[in-house]
Amino acid sequence: MTEELILDCESFNDAVASLSKIFQSTPEKLKGLLSAKEIGAHFEMHWKELPDFRDYLYTVAESHLGFPLPLDAACWFHMTRVLPGTTFSEGILPLAAALPSLKERLIEAVDDHSLKAQLRHALHVSGISDHHYVNKTQNSIHWGPYAILVRDAASCAADLSQHDYLAMPEIIEDICNGFNDPIREELLAVFGAKLRPAVVKFTAPVDQDQEYIATALCYVHSMIQGGKLDTNSVICFDGENAPVLPHHILKVEFVDSNKAEW
What we know:
By secondary structure, this protein is α+β, with helices and mostly antiparallel strands. 45% of the residues lie in helices and 15% in strands. The chain folds into two domains: 6-73 and 202-236, no CATH class; 77-200, no CATH class.
């Protein structure tokens, strides 16, 4: 039985190993190619006549390493914050399906009786008066679930103009923003203390091999050339209101104080 070809960008070395298999090359040859200063220099000199950098780098890799093998799937990384003990036994749900239990978990996280009552009333009776919350909860285009291809992008989200979901998921921020200060700040502090940052790794079939491979190439190239990611290393998964099923989840990483538990 043929082994599935899966693009995995959990780490720099994982990405190099995946890309080497995809291009039927070696890690040494791949890294040697992406170490060439001429790649960036040529792009800077001729960028007006060239496609965007991702497509350009893909073409460079293809011309030196040959055509890549077709992907079966890619690994993705869903960033969130959850209560301790969360297992994702139901998979990763779209917002509409996840919202009822999310509301109860947020209420559970609050110890102060008065604050808990205010949060419960807003979530179940009066509603959250934040336009981002209303838009996301009423429009299925925002229901996801979402994930990123390159795991390292989570540690520098702000530098890449991305929301930092490990700091706090957007929907929870939106709920808090439905309250005036000091309640808003108190809720954010409570959730920041009670909810643990989590990274959920899962696989999903791919339908745009070149785009994903090009992003992985940019990740490896940016790390070799500058030691940090750039925006070409960012591409996102959108479940389009379909859940990530439990058997597609590979592992859950709880991240606290730069330490990981598996």
